[in-house]
Each structure stands twice: as structure tokens, then as C-alpha cells.
Automatic annotation (TrEMBL):
Chief location of this protein within or outside the cell: membrane
Matching CDD domains: HisKA (cd00082)
Gene: phoR
Pfam families named in the record: HATPase_c, HisKA, PhoR
EC annotation from Swiss-Prot or TrEMBL: 2.7.13.3
Protein's UniProt name: histidine kinase
Membrane-spanning parts: 20-41
Domain of life: Bacteria
Organism of provenance: Alcaligenes endophyticus
Subcellular location field: Cell membrane
Residue stretches making up the Histidine kinase domain: 208-426
Lineage: Bacteria, Pseudomonadati, Pseudomonadota, Betaproteobacteria, Burkholderiales
InterPro entries: BphY/WalK/GraS-like, HATPase_C_sf, HATPase_dom, His_kinase_dom, HisK_dim/P_dom, HisK_dim/P_sf, PAS-like_dom_sf, PhoR_N
Reaction(s) catalysed by this chain's protein: ATP + protein L-histidine = ADP + protein N-phospho-L-histidine
């Protein structure tokens, strides 16, 4: 503004001098020319500024007269605002990426409980599709009365547990609603299917342990009460010895259950170690000697054992797994049945310990559950064989600790084939035993 007034004053002074020298008409002409020239230059500056306003990303035009002092601070502020916007966009993007990476689902709802945004985890938990479900009420999407009742509460101190069946799969999801901002809500989802399964397994385990111990305890209590209540002379020595023998059997059964439970607890709580090379053929021959004694000559045993094939592992654990499979085959194979034991390597370098029998076999629906603790496919027959119901659970844990796998093939009434597959990385060549 000051420069414009200075320019006008300079032209007026020039016009006054020329008017004094050449006359008033010449002075007025010079003044009019000067003012016209200033208007034309100002128009040129304004047109350049107008072009710049159309693209504020570019620096302002240079040399626009009095506008220079106005445009420069405006441009500097625009640059600062642009940098702040870029930084804000970067922070928002980082926040959105973090929200997408959350292991829990996150859903934002407006005051009408309409879905505004959700991350991928929430889509997986609840089957949402942000493209089609945005601005839809969450009640219309999920259609669960328990969710409606939960959302109508005045506060949400406890989460809601929902059981969702979708695409043939059952899932348990925990939902927690939290208000934030002004009339906004955050719905956090968490998949607790595995947690619920573990809790069910824990409850079943406690119930099964109680049930397994109750039977021998009931037998013991019955015999002890009988021996206490009847006169000594009313029972023969032969009956007393039979009662004592049966009590001893039940006590040994309880002792076996407790020992297997302690073994399982040890396997689950102790860290896995690499171990050292173990001569598996020696362990198999030892298990066969014990198995033949248990069989009492009622079964035929076929052996195919490579004496030079060893495994890096823990000898006591491997011996337990080997013995468990052989003992099961003997218990569940009728008299005159055949049990085939093999220990060989495959073409890809893996090693297989296999026990195949001609026993009673297992129904297809029972095979996936055989390694569960205390699970018995045939409860009546299983109890009569004297097993604890924990042998295969122990074997599975031992295999997991050795990066190995328990494989089960069976057909009801046609026998079973149990195999321990050890990866080639654990296989070692052993010197021939003399």
C-alpha cells in the first residue's frame, strides 16, 4: 500500500513540474498517463496472481509489486499447513495399519449403532463386509437377540459371549462395547473358541479323573467295609485272600493312573531338549520281552527291526512311547492274533516304528479322539484290559517333544496300525551291537 501511494505521489510531482514548465494541460496529461500505466501494471500483477491461485502447489509469481509482501507469508503458511496435513495423513495411515494388525476385532459405531468402520479381524470374527455393511445397523447385520439386549444396557462392565455358526464352522466370540467421543461406540471382538475348548477339556479332565479313581475306590471301600463288618470266622481264608487280591489290583490300577498323570504333567511342564542318539532297536527288544510276558504265549509276534537305525532324543521317553503302542496291541488283540513290530527308514530318510495287530480295531469316528486323556472307544472292554486311558495321550506328547508324529490307521473288527514317524533330521546311524 505504501509503495502504491509513493508511486502516485511520484507521478503527481512529475506532472506538477511538467505543468509548471509546459503548462497545466501537459501536466494533467502526464498524470493521467502515469495513473493509466499503474492500472495496467496492477492488472497484469492481478492476472498472474489469479493464475497462481488456481495452482497453490507452485510458488507465487515473482515481482508482483506491492503483492509480494502479501503473497510470501501466505505461501509460507500454505507450505506449513501442507506439511502438517502430510504428517497427519501419515499418522492416520499408521494408526489404521495398526488397527488392521490388531489380534482383536475393532468396530466403530455411531449413535444409531450403525457400522462406520471395522478391521479385518472383526470381519473374520463376525463375517462382516465393510463394503456392503457400512452404515447398516449392527443388529441388522448380526441378528442376534442377545446382542440387542446387551446394547440396550446403560453400561457394559462385562463382555457378551456369542456362539456363531457360519459356513459349517462353529465359533465362540467375545464382544465388549465401549462408548467414546460424542455418541460414538467401539465394539471389540475376540475369538475365544480355543479358550473355551481348553476350559471344556479341563472340566472333562477333572470329571474323568474323578470317574476313573471312583471305581477302584468304590471297590476298595466295599471290600474293606465287608471285612470290617462280618465276623472273622464267617469268611474263609480262601475268600479273604481273593478279596485282598482284588483290593491289590484296584490299588495298583490307581497307582498306575497317578503315575501316568505325573508323567503327563512332567512332559507338559519340562522344557524340550535335543537329547542324544538312542539305539531304538534295543528299546524295541526290551519292550518285546515285556510284551511277550504280558501276552503269556497267546499271540504271535513278527519282527522287522533295523539294528543300525537310531534317533536323537530322550531314551526314557522314547522307551515309554514304544512300550505303550506294543502294550495296547497286546491288550486289544484276541488270543491267537498276530502282532507285527517294525522299525525301518523310508525313502525320504524318515524313520517309522510301527505296531500292527489283528485286534478288535477302532471305529472311524473314534480315531481322532484316541489321544484324548481317558478317552475309551469301548469303555467296558477298555476297563477289563487294565489300561489307564492315558497311554496314547502320553505317546502323543512324547512325539511332539521329538518333532515326530503319531499316525493311526484302524478298521473296526479288522485290526489297527499305530506308527511313530520320526523326521530325517533326527535319524542317526548306530553301530551294530555285538
Amino acid at each position: 500500500m505504501l509503495s502504491t501511494l509513493s508511486s502516485i505521489g511520484l507521478w503527481a510531482l512529475t506532472a506538477s513540474l511538467i505543468g509548471w514548465w509546459l503548462g497545466p494541460a501537459a501536466g494533467l496529461g502526464v498524470l493521467a498517463f502515469g495513473l493509466l500505466l499503474m492500472v495496467l501494471v496492477s492488472g497484469l500483477h492481478i492476472s498472474r496472481i489469479a493464475r497462481w491461485v488456481g495452482n497453490l502447489e507452485q510458488p507465487p509469481p515473482p515481482s508482483v509489486g506491492p503483492w509480494d509482501n502479501i503473497l510470501s507469508p501466505i505461501y509460507r503458511q500454505l507450505r506449513r499447513d501442507r506439511q502438517e496435513l502430510i504428517e497427519l495423513d501419515r499418522q492416520v495411515s499408521a494408526i489404521m495399519m495398526a488397527a488392521e494388525a490388531l489380534p482383536d476385532g475393532a468396530i466403530t459405531l455411531n449413535a444409531d449403532m450403525e457400522l462406520q468402520w471395522c478391521n479385518r479381524t472383526a470381519c473374520e470374527h463376525l463375517g462382516l463386509n465393510l463394503a456392503t455393511d457400512r452404515h447398516q445397523r449392527i443388529f441388522n447385520i448380526l441378528r442376534d437377540p442377545s446382542l440387542v439386549a446387551y446394547a440396550k444396557q446403560s453400561s457394559w462392565d462385562a463382555p457378551l459371549i456369542m456362539h456363531i455358526n457360519r459356513d459349517g464352522l462353529s465359533k465362540t466370540v467375545q464382544l465388549q462395547l465401549t462408548p467414546y467421543g460424542l455418541g460414538q461406540y467401539l465394539l471389540v471382538t475376540r475369538d475365544i473358541t480355543q479358550v473355551e475348548k481348553l476350559e471344556t477339556t479341563r472340566k472333562d479332565f477333572v470329571a474323568n479323573v474323578s470317574h476313573e479313581l471312583r471305581t477302584p475306590l468304590t471297590v476298595l471301600l466295599g471290600f474293606l467295609e465287608t471285612l470290617r463288618d462280618i465276623p472273622a470266622e464267617s469268611i474263609s481264608l480262601e475268600q479273604r485272600l481273593r478279596y485282598e487280591e482284588m483290593m491289590l489290583e484296584q490299588t495298583q490300577h490307581m497307582q498306575a493312573i497317578v503315575a501316568d498323570l505325573l508323567t503327563l504333567s512332567t512332559l507338559e511342564s519340562t522344557p524340550t531338549i535335543e537329547g542324544e542318539p538312542v539305539n531304538i532297536s534295543n528299546l524295541i527288544h526290551s519292550a518285546l520281552n515285556q510284551g511277550q510276558a504280558l501276552s503269556g504265549g497267546q499271540h504271535q509276534f513278527i519282527q522287522d527291526i533295523d539294528p543300525n537305525l537310531g534317533i536323537v532324543g530322550i531314551e526314557s521317553e522314547l522307551g515309554s512311547a514304544i512300550s505303550n503302542l506294543l502294550t495296547n496291541a497286546i491288550r486289544y488283540t484276541p488270543k491267537d492274533g498276530t502282532i507285527t513290530v517294525s522299525w525301518q527308514s523310508s525313502a525320504n530318510g524318515d524313520a517309522y516304528y510301527t505296531v500292527q495287530d489283528t485286534g478288535i480295531g477302532v471305529a472311524p469316528q473314534d480315531i481322532p479322539r484316541l489321544t484324548e486323556r481317558f478317552y475309551r472307544a469301548d469303555k467296558g472292554r477298555s476297563r477289563s484290559t487294565g489300561g489307564t486311558g492315558l497311554g496314547l495321550a502320553i505317546t502323543k506328547h512324547i512325539m511332539m517333544r521329538h518333532n515326530a508324529e503319531l499316525q493311526i490307521q484302524s478298521r473296526l473288527g479288522a485290526g489297527s496300525r499305530f506308527s511313530l514317524r520320526f523326521p530325517a533330521s533326527r535319524v542317526r546311524a548306530m553301530p551294530c551291537s555285538s
